[in-house]
Design brief:
mainly alpha, about 75% helix, about 0% strand, globular
């Protein structure tokens, strides 16, 4: 029963992570081969890193090619013209689908990593269990972002690694009390809920601009710091709005001079 549930979780995690990798490939305008490769690396990369960490050689991906085949099949489906047309028209749909796929895959792969560490560990090693769970969850996403020439989500995106760490820790701590399957489902659910809440409420960790603000306290001149989660040329970025707000704040009190340079809907904010 446990092996069947574990296999189902791994297949579902492989499918959703492959889809997220293929979507990232479409967003970066890769060809069919590039999209499939990116999907396979995203789906299987974390598992390969996990197996090498635990001394499992060759990694399971090469001994049981079903995972790579599922990843290739899902990536090929994502490359269908209908999907590409939808993503080209609806950038918001791309971000929403990526969020859900990435969150589900993150939760499932994290708890699967904890389970594999339990099987390989000689005794109860909490650090090993949590570390392997986290690296299994985020490893494929890091490879996806690096191969698609983006900053890894884990370093810049709101509250990404922390849910993985919390879910892996909760799963490992509850393992002896609740059993394997309930602990894995609980850990995956916590990761999913935290990721979705972080995206909705814009939870995040301090960035470099926040640290810089402590270095310029007491300046005789007003200084406005602004930033964004995504570069200004990305769809869905808040950088343009943040930059506009920074100029409006800095120019407050100089309304009559600057208002003529701004659209009518922004002039009243300067007066």
């Amino acid at each position: 029963m446990t092996d069947t549930v574990l296999f189902i979780l791994e297949i579902v995690g492989t499918a959703v992570f492959a889809a997220s990798g293929a979507l990232a490939g479409l967003q970066r305008q890769l060809d069919a081969f590039g999209v499939v490769i990116l999907g396979v690396c995203t789906a299987c990369g974390g598992g390969v890193i996990r197996d090498l960490t635990l001394g499992i050689t060759p990694p399971v991906m090469f001994c049981q090619p079903v995972y790579a085949l599922v990843a290739m099949g899902v990536s090929a489906l994502v490359f269908l013209p209908a999907v590409r047309h939808l993503l080209a028209v609806e950038s918001r749909a791309y971000e929403l689908v990526m969020l859900w796929l990435d969150s589900i895959g993150l939760g499932l792969f994290t708890v699967v990593g904890v389970q594999c560490a339990f099987q390989q560990a000689q005794d109860y090693n909490l650090f090993l269990l949590v570390f392997v769970g986290v690296i299994t969850g985020v490893g494929g996403g890091v490879l996806r972002d690096v191969l698609s020439n983006q900053k890894p989500y884990i370093f810049v995106k709101h509250f990404y690694a922390c849910p993985t760490l919390i879910g892996a820790l909760l799963c490992a701590l509850c393992w002896r009390h609740l059993g394997d399957i309930p602990s894995m489902l609980l850990g995956a659910a916590v990761i999913l809920v935290l990721r979705l809440c972080a995206a909705h409420f814009r939870w995040g960790l301090p960035h470099a601009a926040a640290a810089l603000s402590y270095l310029i306290q007491g300046s005789p001149k007003p200084i406005v710091l602004t930033g964004a989660q995504k570069p200004i040329w990305f769809d869905g970025t808040d950088s343009k709005r943040n930059l506009t707000d920074a100029f409006l704040y800095a120019c407050r009190g100089c309304g009559r001079f600057f208002s003529a340079l701004l659209p009518s809907n922004l002039r009243m904010t300067l007066l």
